[in-house]
Amino acid sequence: MSGPTDDLLTLLDLEPLEVNIYRGTNRDLGTGRVFGGQVFAQALVAARRTVEGPREAHSVHGYFILPGDLAAPIVYFVDRLRDGNSFTTRRVTAIQHGHAIFNLSASFHKTEVGLTHQNVMPEVLPPESLSPELDLIREMAERIPESLRPVLTQDRPLDFRPVSPADPFRPEVRSPVRHVWFRAIATLPDDPLIHQAVLAYASDYGLLPTALQPHGLSFRSRGLQMASLDHSLWMHRPFRADEWLLYATDSPAAAGARAFVRGSIYTRSGALVASVAQEGLIRMRCTTE
Questions:
Q1: How many other CB atoms are found less than 10 A from the CB of residue 147?
Q2: Model confidence band, residue 286 (pLDDT cutoffs 50, 70, 90)
Q3: Is 159 noted as a catalytic residue in this protein?
Q4: Which residue among 105, 232, 251, 278 is the active-site one?
Q5: Which of 79, 134, 154, 199 could tie 91 with a disulfide, CB 3.0–4.6 Å?
Q6: Which tens digits make up the pLDDT trace of 139-161?
Q7: How many helices (H) and strands (E) does the chain have?
Q8: CA 225: distance to chain centroid?
Q9: How far is CA 47 from each of CA 91, 99, 136, 279, rounded to the nearest angstrom?
Q10: Cα R_g (the chain), whole angstroms
Q11: SS3 state of residue 80
Q12: pLDDT band at residue 2, thresholds of 50, 70 and 90?
C-alpha cells in the first residue's frame, strides 16, 4: 500500500479515548482550515464504531458550525440515540478548543432485499483517457503561491480525474455541471466502513465549486468567501472506493449568498451507489487594488 493511502487510513482510524469518545488528527489540503470531508468522514467512523453487528450507514447528515483548526486534534462525542430491530441511529459532535465545530446524524441499516431502480449514469469519457487532476495542478505549479505550492502539489491518496478540467487561475463561464472519476490509488482493506469513510471524505471534494461555474469564478477568485454549511450523503448499495467511481454533480440554484449542489456517484458499470446534497456559503466581498 502506498504512503498517501496509509496516511488516509491513519487519518480515518480514530483513537478511542473513552466509551463513545474518539480523537482524530488532521490533514492540510491548503485551505487554511480542516477539510470538511475529513471531519465528515471521521464523524461517520466514530458513529460506526458504536454500532453492533453488520449494519452499514445509509443516511448521513452533517452541519459545519465553525472552521476547524488544523493545529489541534478533533474530539468526537457519540450519542447512542436508538438501537432498533432494523435501524441504528447515532449523533456525533466534533469538538475543538471546547467548542462544537461540527455535528452529524447517521442511520445504519441491516442488509435487506427490496425493490430496486435508479437513474442512468451519464455518458462520459473513461478515466483511462483523462489526466489525473494532480498532474494538471503540477503543470501549473509556477502560478500557485509559493507558500501553498508544497501542499497543493503533494502526493494524494485519491486519484481524481475531471472529465472537463478547468483552470482555477483563468476560470470561464460554464454550466453548473461537473463530472469527475475518482478512486483510491491503492487497494483498500475489505472492511465496508473503510470504503464508506473514503467515499464520505471524497464526496466533499470539489462539490461546492460546481456552483461557481455559471459565474466564471473559481475557488481561487479574489474576494470570494466559500464554505460548506451542511452536507448529506445517502449510500444505496455496496461499492469499493478503490475502484473507479464517477461523481456527477450539478447546482440547480444559488441565491442569498448560498448555493445548493447535489451529486450522484456511480460505479464504472453504472450502478448508482450514493447520492449527495450540500448547501454552501458563496459570498463576494469588496476588494481594493
A1: 8
A2: low
A3: no
A4: 278
A5: 79
A6: 988 888 887 888 888 889 999 99
A7: 5, 13
A8: 19
A9: 7, 19, 36, 23
A10: 19
A11: strand
A12: low
Q: Are 61 and 105 in contact (CB under 8 A)?
A: yes
Q: CA 197, 202, 203, 207: dihedral to nearest 10 degrees?
A: 160
Question: C-alpha cell of 249?
Answer: 454533480
- Among residues 204, 232, 251, 264, the one annotated as catalytic is 204
Q: Using one digit for the tens of pLDDT, what is the confidence trace for 216-234? A: 998 888 889 999 999 999 9
Cα–Cα dist 98/86, whole Å: 35
Residue 15, helix vs strand vs coil:
strand
Active site residue 278: yes
- Cell numbers that stand for 218 in this block: 473559481
The angle at the Cα of 260, spanning 258 to 266, to the nearest 5 degrees, equals: 155
Angle at 136 between CA 203 and CA 207, to 5 degrees: 20
Annotated catalytic residue 154: no
SS (H, E, C) 115-181: CCCCCCCCCCCCHHHCCCHHHHHHHCHHHCCCCCHHHHCCCCCEEEEECCCCCCCCCCCCCCEEEEE
How long is the chain?
289
Marked catalytic residue, from 107, 213, 228, 264: 228
